[in-house]
Design brief:
This protein is an all-alpha fold. The chain is elongated.
Length: 176
């Protein structure tokens, strides 16, 4: 039963990941185009668009929460892999599980309080230039948190059912 659930969860997460990646690419392109257009309008035409500062800012908020789920799926968030590699594999698995459970607990509260904030304050005020309810901006937090929870659950199930898993030592080195 757990095997069928894991397969379905992996499929759902893969589809969500593809869609999230496409959305983030579109949002990044839109932010770039709007910012360049605003520079052109401001310095060449000596005008200013009232919405050109607001839209990229809110798109960045959405991209941050959506992009965090992409990083969660790829296990690319910041971690102490150097320390973890010294720990024996048996203990490493339990430490990874404990760490991921703590992250899931944190994300639960992000989602819970994100929805509370979104539905209690979201329709009370509107953005300055666009006059859209803050509900649509606040919604990025709980939705991004839900995506991160799903991706983390899927990743954890994959890691703990893989007989060849070696923990952080098996991850490729990612230098910035």
């Amino acid at each position: 039963m757990a095997g069928a659930f894991q397969v379905q969860l992996d499929r759902v997460c893969a589809v969500l990941d593809r869609w999230t990646l496409m959305i983030c690419q579109v949002v990044l392109a839109a932010m770039t185009i709007i910012a360049c257009f605003e520079v052109f309008v401001r310095y060449v035409l000596a005008q200013s668009l009232p919405w050109a500062e607001e839209v990229p800012k809110y798109l960045m908020i959405w991209m941050t929460f959506l992009g965090a789920s992409l990083a969660t799926r790829r296990d690319m968030h910041v971690g102490f892999t150097g320390f973890v590699e010294w720990i024996p594999l048996r203990i490493r698995r339990w430490m990874l599980l404990l760490g991921r459970l703590l992250v899931l607990l944190f994300l639960y509260y992000v989602v819970r309080w994100g929805f509370i904030l979104t539905f209690s304050m979201g329709f009370v005020s509107v953005t300055a230039a666009l006059q859209i309810p803050f509900f649509w901006i606040f919604l990025s937090c709980p939705l991004g948190g839900c995506l991160m929870m799903l991706q983390l659950l899927s990743r954890t199930m994959q890691d703990f059912t893989d007989p060849h898993w070696h923990g952080a030592a098996s991850l490729p080195s990612q230098e910035v």
